[in-house]
Amino acid sequence: MTERIECAVIGAGVVGLAVARALAMRGREVVVLEAENTFGMHTSSRNSEVIHAGIYYPPGSLKARLCVAGKHALYGYCAERGIRHRRIGKLTVALDEAQIETLGKYRAQADANGVPDLKLLDARQSRELEPEVSCVAGLHSPSTGIIDSHGLMLAYLGDAEAAGAALALASPVASGSASADGIALNVGGAEPMTVRARTVVNASGFRAQAVARSISGVPPATIPPTHYAIGHYYTLAGKSPFARLIYPVARPDWHGVHVTIDLGGQCKFGPDFEWIDRIDYRFDEARESAFYDAIRCYYPRLKDGALQPGYTGIRPKIAGPGAPPQDFVIQSPREHGVPGLVNLYGIDSPGLTASLAIADRVADVLAA
Question: Which residues on adjacent β-strands are paired with residue 92?
Answer without folding.
Answer: 139, 247
